[in-house]
Amino acid sequence: ISSFMTTSLFSTGVNSEQLTQPESLTIQPGQPLTIRCQVSYSVSSHYTAWIRQPEGHTLEWIGQIYTGNKLMKDSLSSKFSLTLDVASKTITLQGQNMQPGDSAVYYCARETQHYKLL
Fold this sequence. Notes:
Layout: E1 2-6, E2 9-10, E3 18-20, E4 24-27, E5 33-39, E6 48-53, E7 60-66, E8 69-72, E9 80-85, E10 90-95, E11 105-110
Parallel strand pairs: 1-11
Antiparallel strand pairs: 1-4, 2-3, 3-5, 5-10, 6-7, 6-11, 7-8, 9-10
Protein name: Ig-like domain-containing protein
GO cellular component, one term: immunoglobulin complex
Pfam families: V-set (PF07686)
């Protein structure tokens, strides 16, 4: 059994925002992974990143997305995909063929820089 834990992450500062994820997920090896992150800010003006941290290892950036742009870590782009639902302010991380080596704490996080669509 492969376990995947996620936590809620709050950014600090003058404009504190809330990002909400499920507390934990457990899936079998080879199964797909879907984790949704619902946020309180405009997903059209800030990147939301997905990051993971396997036990005993450092943080690993998976990718980030906002309206009109998506960036992925090259070595993980065939395993993971990111989608964005502007109406519900939800950013979804999907993984395929998950293996025990993918067990980690998965975080969603808002980038502090503000983007403006021209």
